[in-house]
Amino acid sequence: MGIWYTENSAEEKTTQKTSIIMKSTPDTMKDRIALVTGGSRGLGRDIALRLADVVGSVAISCRKKRNAAEKMCEEIRTKGKIFKVFPTDLTAEKQVQKLVSGVEEEFGRIDILVNNAGPILVKPWEKVTSKEWEDTLRSNLNSALWAIKSALPGMKKRKWGRIINIGYSRAEQLAAFPTILPYAVAKTGLLLVTRTAASTVASCGITVNMVSPGLIKRGILPQDKNIPAGRLGTFADVSNAVLFLVSEVAGYITGTNIVVAGGWKI
Q1: Active-site residue 183, yes or no?
Q2: Which of 18, 62, 117, 251 is within CB 3.0–4.6 Å of 14 for a Cys-Cys bond?
Q3: Alpha helices for 13-65 (secondary structure H)
Q4: In angstroms, rounded to a whole number, what is the distance separating the alpha carbons of residues 28 and 13?
Q5: pLDDT in tens, 24-53
Q6: CATH superfamily of 3-260
Q7: Which entry of 5, 168, 183, 252 is annotated as an active-site residue?
């Protein structure tokens, strides 16, 4: 069972960028149900809060950060939206399946799935243990695959769905990654899953895309921070791309990878 939060208070003013997207979004988005994995903090938290501006209900999964999820409630409450937290270990297939079925049971369906969860492991590749390798792939790659496979039947039945996988800006670069090898392998694999799923469900009104952040404020930063745009990225930069891809106006965009990195490492 999750933690239930609901409130009918009036919505606060949204940010200017979110308002622009809302103005171009049909009223049908206001009834959509969104699930964001790893949504209690960081980027996942920002995506969940921004989605709450345009959809009807938001569910998130979290493994530990229950206090952070409680604080999120206060922000989503002001928007007059329904919010629920599902404690989940995303490295376990049955728990991911239970997460999806739990959201569908509570809200009736999942229209938008954002696979955000995925910790990075920074460690020389030859010192990575088998458990660390397995956990990194399960968190970043397997969990998304399991969630997609679990959510697709309902989306296919309704002929509508938006799936966004959060990747890594260098996922398409087959290069050496001596300090983040399992993470890089997982994100490249996730891109292949994204495009494979996109090609097979496009006829069902479902889009599957990836949004790949580069160097983000408050994230783990390498020594090479030579960013052509002249600044680090923000959570909002990434969330804006997610909001666009889940909207009705992006219904013909699928299988793409939007790199949000300010030109870093291109």
Answers
A1: yes
A2: 18
A3: 16-23, 42-51
A4: 20
A5: 455 679 999 999 999 988 999 999 999 999
A6: NAD(P)-binding Rossmann-like Domain (3.40.50.720)
A7: 183
